[in-house]
């Protein structure tokens, strides 16, 4: 089968044919076998590019798989073969899932308990983009922060993969949603999703813009901060938080881990949640499963929508990584397996 192999650490945006590229296309990689009676082999249709996949190839992610490895986490596809004891799926079923590594390939094997049926009304491309981004935001906002209708949610990096999902989940929960992003195209999309206030960082600063909005709506401050960016944006956002606010530490796309002063957290009764979605698979698997089931039902009812700004073939993976690195992604960047390398980019 065809697969993308990471053979050394480095920048995956370098063209594949350059000697510096850490990734290569293996044309006849061994097909993964059905190693247990409950194993299912899935022919992958689409797999999403997460910031973590980029960091992992750079060698800057918390999980460092031994080299060489096939990168990739969330995916969708069609069941191609099942083990003798599989009872939940049959050949031809549409499924989605995620794994620690391995989805940048034509085929992947998973246990049947780790697969989710893709419901009617949800296309396979969207299902392949859903687990990590929407799963993270759903567990963070619904399970951890227990976001309630009428509360004020502030989302940083709001037009990125996790950010755009947080904005939509916030709206489904009935929150007043404030989004922070950079540039007219991102702002336009966020406004089209019914976000209550968008801060365009190319035009102004977060504190000033949000304070003006809160005053206009007669609101005191922010109840939940969703932060996948870090750095000075976090520092500024802390000035907007209410007594008893929840801070969701999601990631550090700015490259800077922020400092959240414990003395102010004490005085203001803030709760700081470190949230690593993937580890729920080990420690709270039912939370993660229930969350994905709910998200798949929301998507088939049209309550949420996966926005895909770029779609590439496996051979164009370096361009997909570049879209993430250069902050061009709005929502998700996808790799569609078997997609012609001529028909690429914006869908
Ligand atoms: N905790 C978890 O379980 C979990 C799960 C998924 C992702 N994450 C983390 O969340 C973060 C975002 O992931 P993502 O997939 O949403 O990435 P993404 O699609 O690339 O979005 C990141 C957003 O951050 C903003 N940003 C601000 N400063 C940036 C910088 N210096 N470089 C790049 N982007 C910058 C960008 O928005 P503007 O250009 O509009 O400012 C961009 O839209 C990553 O750190 C990732 O590892 C964590």
Automatic annotation (TrEMBL):
Lineage top rank: taxon: Eukaryota
Subunit structure: Homodimer.
Region (Disordered): 9-28
The organism's taxonomic lineage, starting at the top: Eukaryota, Viridiplantae, Streptophyta, Embryophyta, Tracheophyta
InterPro entries, alphabetized: ADH-like_C (IPR013149), ADH-like_N (IPR013154), ER (IPR020843), GroES-like_sf (IPR011032), NAD(P)-bd_dom_sf (IPR036291), Quin_OxRdtase/zeta-crystal_CS (IPR002364), Zn-ADH-like_protein (IPR051397)
SMART domains: PKS_ER
Positions of the Enoyl reductase (ER) domain: 23-335
Organism: Dioscorea zingiberensis
The protein's name in its UniProt record: Enoyl reductase (ER) domain-containing protein
GO terms for MF: oxidoreductase activity; zinc ion binding
């Amino acid at each position: 089968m065809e697969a993308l192999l990471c053979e050394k650490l480095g920048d995956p945006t370098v063209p594949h044919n350059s000697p510096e590229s850490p990734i290569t296309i293996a044309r006849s990689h061994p097909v993964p076998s059905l190693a247990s009676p409950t194993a299912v082999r899935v022919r992958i249709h689409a797999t999403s590019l997460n910031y973590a996949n980029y960091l992992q190839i750079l060698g800057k992610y918390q999980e460092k798989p031994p080299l060489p490895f096939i990168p990739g986490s969330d995916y969708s596809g069609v069941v191609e073969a099942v083990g003798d004891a599989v009872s939940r799926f049959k050949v031809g079923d549409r499924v989605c899932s995620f794994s620690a590594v391995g989805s940048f390939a034509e085929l992947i094997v998973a246990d049947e308990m780790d697969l989710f049926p893709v419901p009617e009304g949800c296309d396979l491309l969207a299902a392949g983009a859903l687990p990590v981004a929407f799963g993270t935001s759903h567990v963070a906002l619904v399970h951890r922060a227990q976001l309630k209708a009428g509360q004020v949610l502030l989302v940083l990096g709001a037009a990125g993969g996790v950010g755009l999902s947080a904005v939509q989940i916030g709206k489904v929960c009935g929150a007043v949603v404030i989004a922070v992003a950079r540039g007219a195209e991102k702002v336009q999309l966020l406004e089209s999703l019914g976000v209550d206030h968008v801060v365009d960082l190319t035009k102004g600063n977060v504190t000033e813009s949000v304070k003006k909005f809160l005053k206009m709506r007669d609101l005191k401050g922010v109840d939940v901060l969703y932060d996948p960016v870090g750095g000075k944006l976090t520092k500024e956002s802390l000035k907007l938080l209410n007594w008893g606010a929840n801070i969701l530490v999601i990631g550090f796309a700015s490259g800077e881990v922020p400092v959240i002063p414990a003395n102010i957290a004490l005085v203001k009764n803030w709760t700081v949640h470190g949230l690593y979605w993937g580890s729920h698979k080990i420690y709270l698997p039912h939370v993660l499963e229930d969350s994905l089931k709910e998200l798949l039902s929301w998507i088939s009812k049209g309550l949420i929508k996966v926005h895909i700004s770029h779609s590439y073939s496996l051979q164009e993976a370096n361009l997909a990584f570049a879209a993430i690195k250069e902050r061009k992604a709005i929502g998700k960047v996808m790799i569609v397996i078997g997609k012609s390398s001529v028909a690429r980019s914006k869908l």
